[in-house]
Amino acid sequence: MKKLFFILLIVISASQLYSQNRPKNAIGIRLSEGFIGDEGFGPEITYQRQIISEHNRFDANLSYKSNSFISTYRSGVFFHWTYNIWDNLNWFAGPGVGFGVVDFKTRYFGITVAEVDRDSEFFPFIGGDFGVDYQFDFPLQVAFSIRPTFDFHDIDRYNGYGDVDNVGASVGISARYTF
């Protein structure tokens, strides 16, 4: 029993030493493509900050995405629970909230896609964020994540057909400077 207790104490101590070397801040860019929904491709500026413990962080982001008939601007905050998989490889998951603005396009590559100029529309959203990240021995973190969202709006498309999708998901890769 004493041996088991001693081994457990060493393992916990080693994990605490590892966790103290994790950077508390990260800032960078996430490139994402919407694979469900209407949003399209675009960059995001992201900032991460470790809070509460070494296993918790928040991820604040500003994004711009575009496709052939809309441009979407978003701002959101996601809470992550992070856990170590192996060495510097971690997985994370968590909920988020935010708001966005949809801007409708009337011309695309010089071709008229809508006869009527429409106003931009504001919407709130909720979502989730999950994926894996790797922290290099120098100040760089790379990540792969999937971010499903649900937008609270009732926006018609430019041609009156259907609705701009309320449910969306994007897949993205990130590179962040850690400090």
Structure characterization notes:
The chain is elongated and about 75 Å long. It is mostly beta strands and 179 residues long. The chain is built from one helix and ten strands.
**Unreliable residue stretches:** 14-20
Write the H/E string, N to C. Answer: HEEEEEEEEEE
Number of extended strands: 10
Number of helices: 1
Please tag this protein with its features.
179 residues, mainly beta, 8-stranded antiparallel β-barrel, two-stranded antiparallel ribbon, 1 helix
Task: Describe, in short, the structure shown.
The protein has 179 residues and is mostly beta strands. It has one helix spanning 2-20; strands at 25-36, 41-50, 56-66, 70-86, 89-104, 107-108, 111-112, 121-135, 140-151, 167-178. It is built from 1 helix and 10 strands.
Topology:
Blueprint lengths: L1 H19 L4 E12 L4 E10 L5 E11 L3 E17 L2 E16 L2 E2 L2 E2 L8 E15 L4 E12 L15 E12 L1
Antiparallel strand pairs: 1-2, 1-10, 2-3, 3-4, 4-5, 5-8, 6-7, 8-9, 9-10
